[in-house]
Design a protein that fits this description.
It is a multi-pass membrane protein. Helix content is about 70%, strand content about 5%. It is mainly alpha-helical and about 240 residues long. The chain has a single domain, classed as Up-down Bundle (de novo design (two linked rop proteins)). A hairpin with an 8-residue loop joins strand 4 and strand 5.
Length: about 240
């Protein structure tokens, strides 16, 4: 139920938006896919403390001490944190697009209806929100909006850095923790040694593979979209005037 509740605002924002740009629906689609993948992937990790078992006559204190030593890096909390960072990278572009829409509508009102504004800022905002243009859909043209294009590329770069870090965490931090090998534990308070293992390690590895697959897909899309945007909106645009001459 919580997952469905989280999907509703994401899908509603993607569908009901009045300002669109290249790739917008796809990024919101990745938000929904990542949320579904997180929900499924977290299931095998819900009882991680109970899945950590040690052989022999081991006290509960020593078992938990070994557990803390082995899982010294947060798992599910770190997954959710990277998802929040991914949401922020998408919402940053939404903020820039909304500000551009407001400025475009305000300039349109100045040119066609009101002329130069002499009133205060509050009157301007009220006029923009109440005007008919505010209800129409706007498709952002990155050929004309170079500043917004640079911000868009920065958002893609931020997304790429987040996903590369997330992929590194999954493969080099979390996956070795559940590789199925026996765990030899010896702590300061419990010298041991104790022989422990993590139950349901196959399911836990599968959840990491699922998240890694989605992460690799986002990394590829970020590279493709970034390369396409640079070539199409910047390099190609510069070469056209030269060809015309």
């Amino acid at each position: 139920m919580a997952m469905v509740t989280g999907l509703i605002p994401i899908l509603r924002t993607a569908i009901e938006a009045t300002t669109d740009y290249n790739g917008r629906t796809m990024w919101f689609g990745f938000l929904a896919i990542r949320l579904l993948t997180l929900y499924v992937s977290e299931m095998p990790w819900s009882k991680l403390d109970l899945d950590f078992q040690c052989n022999g006559n081991v006290s509960e204190f020593c078992r938990k001490s070994c557990f803390n030593q082995h899982f010294d890096v947060p798992v599910v909390a770190l997954w959710n944190f990277t998802y929040i960072l991914f949401i922020i990278s998408v919402l940053l572009m939404e903020l820039f697009a909304a500000q551009l829409r407001h400025n475009l509508i305000k300039d349109k009102i100045k040119q066609e209806l009101l002329g130069p504004f002499n009133e205060g800022e509050q009157t301007n905002l009220t006029g923009v929100k109440g005007h008919d243009l505010a209800q129409k859909d706007i498709m952002i043209d990155f050929h004309q909006q170079k500043k917004l294009l640079c911000l868009y590329l920065l958002c893609i770069l931020l997304r790429l850095v987040i996903e590369l870090g997330f992929f590194y965490i999954l493969i080099y931090w979390h996956l070795p923790k559940v590789n199925g090998a026996p765990i030899n534990c010896s702590t300061l308070l419990c010298p041991g040694p104790f022989h422990c293992l993590v139950r349901a390690s196959v399911e836990k590895r599968m959840s990491i593979y699922m998240l890694s697959t989605i992460s690799v897909g986002i990394i590829i899309i970020c590279c493709v979209f970034g390369f396409y945007s640079i070539c199409h909106y910047l390099l190609l645009k510069r070469s056209q005037p030269r060809n015309a001459k």
